[in-house]
């Protein structure tokens, strides 16, 4: 499910760049670091509003934004707003119950007039005709017009989105080899992975070499957002000594050396040359 660039955090390997998962198969997003619907939506902020638009170059209208983001995530979605609201996906009736990646609809009765992609913290991304661009806005500003939301992402894709979003919160946290597990002031590579995955009921051993035995093998060409990727290091004597989380578009989030938690490519340079294997721990 990857191979799209920056968001498919699940089915997401193309855009989480947020919502979800990942990086994308589309060359248009080759610069994106991750790949979920939330993240993808965030990267589109500032793009032009265009009636009938559904592309980066052509701009977006309300339903065109939804259609584009989830197409990048390999989800089939109708093009028309009214048909998107009628999709055979779980209907969320309360705004207090929405999750990252849900598509929120606003209007009267069962007739939507505009929509947005929820990105968490009472915020959504929407193509605004009034602002003439894609904007990030508070959902509370429109709560009286809320008529429901559709949960597009599967349970596993939702988990992938949340893994990436959670890991992103620690960008810049210092690297410390042998960092004590359970605290978040510093991490080493495996304590970082263990900390993030444990939050979503995925138990990992403490050491990267042991983590490489978890889940099931996945080839580098079939990586999906949320997969663990493993490497040798200068001190590991040819054995696995490093781990990161794949986020799509050939990128991983990990911690190593200067800068601490960061994004790095696994398709060129050191990490490409020292890549060993990958494991899928999301069932």
UniProtKB/TrEMBL annotation:
Keyword Cytoplasm listed? The answer is no
Coiled-coil intervals in this record?
none
What are the residue boundaries of the NlpC/P60 domain, all occurrences included? Answer: 31-153, 157-282
**SUPFAM superfamilies assigned:** Cysteine proteinases
Which molecular function terms from Gene Ontology are attached?
Answer: cysteine-type peptidase activity
GO biological process, alphabetically ordered:
proteolysis
Q: Which UniProt keywords apply?
A: Hydrolase, Protease, Signal, Thiol protease
Q: What are the boundaries of the signal sequence?
A: 1-30
Q: Does the keyword Hydrolase apply?
A: yes
Q: Kindly give the PANTHER family that the UniProt entry links to this protein.
A: MUREIN DD-ENDOPEPTIDASE MEPH-RELATED
The entry assigns this protein to a family as follows: Belongs to the peptidase C40 family.
From the Swiss-Prot or TrEMBL record, give the protein name.
Answer: NlpC/P60 domain-containing protein
């Amino acid at each position: 499910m990857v191979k799209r660039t920056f968001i498919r955090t699940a089915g997401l390997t193309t855009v989480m760049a947020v919502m979800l998962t990942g990086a994308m198969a589309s060359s248009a997003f080759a610069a994106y670091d991750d790949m979920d619907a939330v993240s993808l939506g965030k990267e589109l902020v500032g793009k032009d509003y265009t009636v009938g638009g559904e592309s980066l170059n052509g701009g977006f209208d309300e339903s065109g934004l939804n259609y584009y983001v989830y197409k990048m995530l390999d989800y089939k979605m109708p093009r028309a707003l009214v048909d998107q609201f009628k999709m055979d996906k779980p209907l969320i009736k309360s705004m207090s119950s929405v999750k990252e990646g849900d598509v929120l609809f606003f209007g009267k009765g069962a007739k939507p007039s505009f929509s947005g992609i929820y990105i968490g913290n009472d915020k959504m991304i929407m193509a605004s005709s009034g602002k003439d661009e894609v904007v990030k806005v508070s959902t509370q500003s429109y709560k009286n017009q809320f008529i429901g939301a559709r949960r597009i992402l599967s349970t596993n894709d939702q988990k992938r989105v949340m893994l990436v979003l959670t890991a992103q919160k620690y960008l810049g946290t210092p690297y410390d080899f042998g960092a004590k597990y359970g605290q978040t002031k510093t991490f080493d590579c495996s304590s970082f992975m263990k900390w993030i995955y444990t939050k979503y009921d995925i138990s990992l051993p403490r050491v990267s070499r042991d983590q490489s035995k978890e889940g099931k093998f996945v080839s580098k060409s079939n990586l999906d957002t949320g997969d663990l990727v493993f490497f040798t290091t200068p001190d590991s004597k040819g054995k696995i000594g490093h781990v990161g989380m794949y986020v799509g578009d050939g990128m991983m989030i990990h911690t190593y050396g200067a800068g601490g938690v960061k994004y790095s490519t696994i398709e060129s340079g050191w990490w490409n040359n020292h890549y060993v294997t990958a494991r899928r721990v999301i069932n």
